[in-house]
Design brief:
By secondary structure, this protein is mainly α. Helix content is about 75%, strand content about 0%.
């Protein structure tokens, strides 16, 4: 959906800034609760959660299929 591109770009930027601003807080909390030696494991947990969320979103998008895509957008681009 090309018409949604500006909205999605803005949302992606906002989430990026939220992640960057939350990272020091999560790092400090991880060091306070588990110690500095376990900071890598805490980071790995957040990476795994991100991968699970991405796979869940992919499954939802795939489940919807192409039923909601208008016919004009579903056709492949002509090749020259």
């Amino acid at each position: 959906m090309p018409t949604a591109a500006p909205l999605l770009t803005g949302l992606a930027s906002a989430v990026f800034y939220l992640g960057v601003s939350a990272a020091p807080l999560v790092g400090q909390a991880g060091m306070a609760w588990f110690g500095a030696h376990w900071l890598g494991a805490v980071g790995a947990v957040f990476i795994a959660l991100g991968l699970v969320a991405a796979e869940a979103a992919h499954a939802v998008i795939r489940r919807r299929g192409t039923d909601e895509v208008p016919a004009a957008q579903a056709q492949p681009l002509p090749t020259e």
